[in-house]
Amino acid sequence: MVAGKDMSGQLEWSVNVPNGRSEILVPESGAVNRVCLGIKGLVVGFVLKIWRFLEKAWNLGVSEPKKVIHCVKVGMALSIVSLFYYMRPLYEGVGGNAMWAVMTVVVVFEYTVGATLCKCINRATGTFLAGSLGIGVHWVASQSDEKIQPVILGISVFLLASAATFSRFIPSVKARFDYGAMIFILTFSLVSVSGYRVDKLFDYAHQRLSTIAIGTSICIIISMLLCPIWAGDELHRLTIRNLKKLADSLDGCVTEYFKEDETESINEKDTNNNNLQGYKCVLNSKATEESMANFARWEPAHGHFNFRHPWKQYLKIGAAMRNCACCIETLNGRINSEIQAPEFLKRHLSDVCKRLSSHSSIVLEEMATTMKTMRKSSKIDLLVGEMNFAVEDLQNALESLPKQLMISSPLLAIEASNDAKEELIMKPILIPLMDILPLATVVTLLIEITVRIEGIVDAVEELADQAEFKPQSDQKKSKQNQPATDDHDDETVKTLQKV
Amino acid sequence: MVAGKDMSGQLEWSVNVPNGRSEILVPESGAVNRVCLGIKGLVVGFVLKIWRFLEKAWNLGVSEPKKVIHCVKVGMALSIVSLFYYMRPLYEGVGGNAMWAVMTVVVVFEYTVGATLCKCINRATGTFLAGSLGIGVHWVASQSDEKIQPVILGISVFLLASAATFSRFIPSVKARFDYGAMIFILTFSLVSVSGYRVDKLFDYAHQRLSTIAIGTSICIIISMLLCPIWAGDELHRLTIRNLKKLADSLDGCVTEYFKEDETESINEKDTNNNNLQGYKCVLNSKATEESMANFARWEPAHGHFNFRHPWKQYLKIGAAMRNCACCIETLNGRINSEIQAPEFLKRHLSDVCKRLSSHSSIVLEEMATTMKTMRKSSKIDLLVGEMNFAVEDLQNALESLPKQLMISSPLLAIEASNDAKEELIMKPILIPLMDILPLATVVTLLIEITVRIEGIVDAVEELADQAEFKPQSDQKKSKQNQPATDDHDDETVKTLQKV
Fold this sequence. Notes:
Chain A is mostly helical. The first copy, chain A, has three domains: 62 residues; 157 residues; 252 residues, Methane Monooxygenase Hydroxylase, Chain G, domain 1, CATH 1.20.58. Chain A is 77% helix and 4% strand. In chain A, the strands form two sheets. Chain A has a three-stranded antiparallel β-sheet, with no helix packed on it. A two-stranded parallel ribbon of chain A has the order 4-5. In chain A, strand 2 and strand 3 form a beta hairpin. The N terminus and C terminus of chain A are likely disordered. Chains A, B: This is Aluminum-activated malate transporter. Chains A, B: Its main location: membrane. Chains A, B: One of its GO terms (cellular component) is membrane. Chains A, B: It is a multi-pass membrane protein.
């Protein structure tokens, strides 16, 4: 017999089996199951989250193998520096202070050679200065009464730490010696204060310096000799990439604005949109450029770059590019605007505008080539001239617009009544200003963009002068050598952006 | 007798005095003097350089007293933590490892509370995780043969250090746990490797953790209790300042474009230029905003802000503002452009354009007030409506332009021959498109700016919803309380910008 009982508000089923006992039927899809499902969901969610994280990491690794190499280099540097623990003679050589060497490697090893050098030099200088000062203050304190000693030490720590902290707010110090100032505070506090407890202070300072020297030299050697990643090189590539992106964006924007065919496949649209958005990278790369340029100044001569390569000029090029990108962003805003110019007007100017934009992007691409090959362009004047001719063409097209419309008006007049036809052909058509507005803006923006592109050209030419680029003679040879690696690099970056 | 001799290429004068000796005349204005002058110049130059540096620092301190307070706080924290050296019971309490506490204070104490908290939590977590893992790996190694021990330790250091370094490249980790990952590598290397030499590894790890706890708690207490500088507060103020700057820039640009009187004093021009350039600060504040928003998330509830205040929304407001600033930058470019619209056209549109720009800046200022008082604005819909009416007015003015010109043409016609006068009055004047172009662009840009300002309004209203701003009821009361401090702040910032 099967009976249903309501116990404590829950329905429970029991079966009276033949031997007199009644067995409770536990509902399979009940609380336990729900808990199981919940846990299962949590675990699956957690695993999925980790999986996605790992996938992201894997994609990052695949798209930027340099970063993976950097990680291997850090691992290697740490393994090497830990030899100071494993090998007794080495360990005793640094008086059991191998810890500082390990710490130095962890803290100082950065992605680019320039950053590593900057930190190494800052750390060494900061430690040395603060160490000497700390020993001096400690000597002064030790000459005085034992009770006043902590007071002197405390006040000196307070004053110097405050002053050094303040110096870190001053832009010129912050840009180059921020880390050094921190190490100065750290070492000064440690040396002067611990001098109160440590007897052989001089030995202590000496050991610290020597372990730091060991750590920094391991870092410098590994980061410079094993697949070095130069900040200068990265900055140079970034600038070239940004120039290309600007060219693509400009071309893409103008094509998009004047395109007539709406039956574009979604794929094409996506690619086009990606190209269009390139100017955003340019707008956002200020901070990266500044830190790269800052680190590049610490780097020795490498590749095509001298020790005194004018890295600051790259910032000027960057500023000129952002200036231009701002204009392209406004232009891009016009594409998505609701108010559009009448089609016949657009058609009239489509060709001249497209020609101007293609001439402008050719100039930008020529600049990218100049930087890539590091040779002065022989044809840049010609190209800028052509761009300016295109501007003139556009202006002429605008000026001839009323006349042109008079000629093309019969087409429109067909729709008008026959009586008025004669009149329409004879009179110039008055285009309401509101209709011209959107197109006029696009035209002005295009002209403005050419002006700003000339700013970029000037900045690049100044760089070419300062860095003494050679004239373009055997350009073809160098073109054959370089693009292969660089194109690969560009693809890498595009993949990264998707990540 | 006086004789000139040429010795070793230099002219030398000697005087034969009566007693037969000849004395060499040393030219007073010669080499020694020149060296003296050179040294003097160097010293003066050096002193001047230092003087200028100190002046800069002083100005920075005067304009941003918060930074000076921060420096004093760092000095205090260090003085307090060094008590662990001076007082014997404290020193012995941490087993002579007071060094780690000092180090923690130096490394962890940051300008804002959020940054300090972020670093403290990262440091504590990183140390704890890496310490446990290090002890585990050390235990595994200690079970094996003594010769294999360094190999196991070395491989584990290599693998974990590489992995942790790689994780620092992943954007989500980099934003929040960059410092923690570094501390993880540091502690893991130290614990696992030094375990090879240090006997009481557990004690070592325990002491490190406790000293770090001491250091971090001193930092947190001092940074939160003594004149705390909240990242969230700074971000909030920055956003308000940027809104005001946008409003000033827009107004300034339009006034500058339509101004007729060229006899402006240089002082006025300077002030105006300063106002005009405000949008540049907006364009450049992306990095600051991001780091502030990142730190603000670590902060507890403070002032008007809850723990879960929607800091991310500030980034959206920032993006909307930069979007608008880009347009203003293009507009600003038009002011300095060589091609200008004819004066009579400008005069015709001057009033409507100025009205539109003033309505737009009123909307921006209302947004600034909304954020400052943290109360939903009751009149924003009205103000946006007025702005849109102004847009319509501008459009109407443009549409009526041909007719208007017909009316105003007699003025122009006076210059024409009397015969043609009648004709001129009757016919509409055809303005060449090239002449309209610059003005048309300015008009379109102004309209585009209003669209983007609506984007800002949407973003701020979303913030008001998310942060549950109260409706504006006792607005006047809060207005009386707040502006005094904020205005002072604004002045501070302006002074700083001059520095």
